[in-house]
Specification:
The protein is about 40% helix and about 15% strand. With about 375 residues, it is of the alpha/beta class. Helix 3 packs parallel to helix 9 and helix 4 runs parallel beside helix 5. The chain contains 14 helices and 14 strands. The protein has a 7-stranded mixed sheet with strand order 1-9-8-5-4-2-3, with helices on both faces. It has a 3-stranded antiparallel sheet with strand order 7-6-12, with no helix packed on it.
């Protein structure tokens, strides 16, 4: 493959010296779980997001699950209550709701933005609705102002799935500080990626943060004393140390992603390819993924592959069509299905060296 979709080796090689120092620092400390590196990262990432608290956990799915479990523990949600989410996200959003003992209610996205549609959310409200869980899909912030209005009018929680949105913002407020709580993933391919699985909860609600810290650690705030039925989901010292290294470059990387995205938007001028809609002037896209739509998506992907360009599909099967959930669906989701049929993600990452080749190949495409 001449142009890989994502070159994780090159992205991480930039930090090789700092990673070695971080590893040595952790080795010298002799402390590998819930130590100084985790504490420092939690402070630094919460400050980056503009929130008061960060709780490091094992992965992004656990982050969302623990937020919901903590709200149940605190009596703000009850088992089997409903949480509204988009039908076209990665399945982890729905799994978190199910794992917490709650009921996922899927709704259609806005076809222009691929993000959850506020009007669809309003139409799905029921007496059992307790929370809305928008996904900042591909790094584009959801319409949080409309969703916040709905949440406040109906006394609902607004929980961000920010797994793809490190650095995204609305009116100067970053993802992680746009709702009541947010779940982040630090999977290696994310804008802020660990060298393994990792995740975090971000919130300004101290009661929620304290409860989540207990739940991630066997339900314990004090060793051998277990106040809650918790689990083991802890961001380890080594991954925290690596993330601290990469966090220092996240703002610069976000600028690089923005520049690459704008270059794609200016350069690709093929009527057979629908470009992503830019966010409003007061919002910033994190550009975790650069997604286009094409009615002849498979032909476009084959064409690009013939030019040595790797692309991926995010996502080929929406949640509503997954066997895990399809049997329980009582509605059709034509917008989600259409987006899944036409979406294609082009390579985009800091330091991406051959973008013009991708632009030229896209412009050369002719549907067969």
């Amino acid at each position: 493959m001449n142009i890989p979709f994502l070159d994780l080796k090159a992205l991480n090689q930039r930090f090789a010296g700092d990673f070695a120092d971080a590893l040595q620092r952790v080795l010298d400390s002799g402390w590998f779980i819930q130590g100084e590196e985790l504490g420092q990262f939690e402070q630094e990432f919460s400050r980056y997001c503009g929130a008061q608290y960060c709780v490091g956990v094992g992965n992004g799915l656990d982050a969302l699950t623990l937020i919901l479990k903590a709200y149940i523990e605190l009596g703000r949600i009850a088992l089997k209550d409903e949480v509204i989410l988009p039908a076209n996200s990665f399945i982890a959003t729905a799994l978190a709701i199910s794992h917490a003992g709650l009921t996922p209610v899927l709704v259609e996205p806005d076809p222009r933005t691929s993000n959850i549609c506020p009007k669809a959310v309003e139409a799905a409200l029921s007496p059992r609705t307790r929370a809305i869980m928008p996904v900042h899909l591909y790094g584009r912030p959801a319409d949080v102002h409309a969703l916040r209005g709905i949440a406040d009018s109906h006394r609902l929680l607004l929980i961000e799935d920010a797994a793809q949105a490190h650095g995204a913002s609305v009116r100067g407020r970053k993802a992680g500080n746009l709702g009541d709580a947010a779940g982040f993933s630090f999977f290696p391919g994310k804008n802020l990626g660990a060298l393994g699985d990792a995740g975090a909860i971000v919130t300004s609600d101290q009661e929620l943060a304290d409860c989540a810290r207990s739940l991630r650690n066997y339900g314990s705030a004090r060793k051998y004393h277990h106040d809650r039925v918790g689990l083991n989901s802890r961001l380890d010292e080594l991954q925290a140390a690596f993330l601290r290294v990469k966090l220092r470059k996240l703002a610069e990387d976000a600028d690089a992603r923005q520049e690459l995205a704008l270059r794609y938007c200016a350069g690709i001028a093929n009527p057979a390819i629908r470009m992503p809609e830019m966010p409003p002037h007061d919002a910033r896209h994190a550009w975790h993924l650069f997604t286009v739509h094409a009615q002849h998506r498979n032909s476009l992907q084959t064409h690009l592959l013939s030019r040595g360009i790797e692309t991926l599909i995010h996502y080929p099967v929406p949640i509503c069509s997954q066997p895990a959930y399809a049997a329980s669906m009582h509605s059709s989701f034509p917008i989600s299905e259409e987006l899944a049929r036409t979406v294609l993600s082009l390579p985009l990452y800091p330091g991406f060296p051959e973008q013009q080749r991708v632009i030229d190949a896209c412009n050369d495409f002719r549907p067969s």
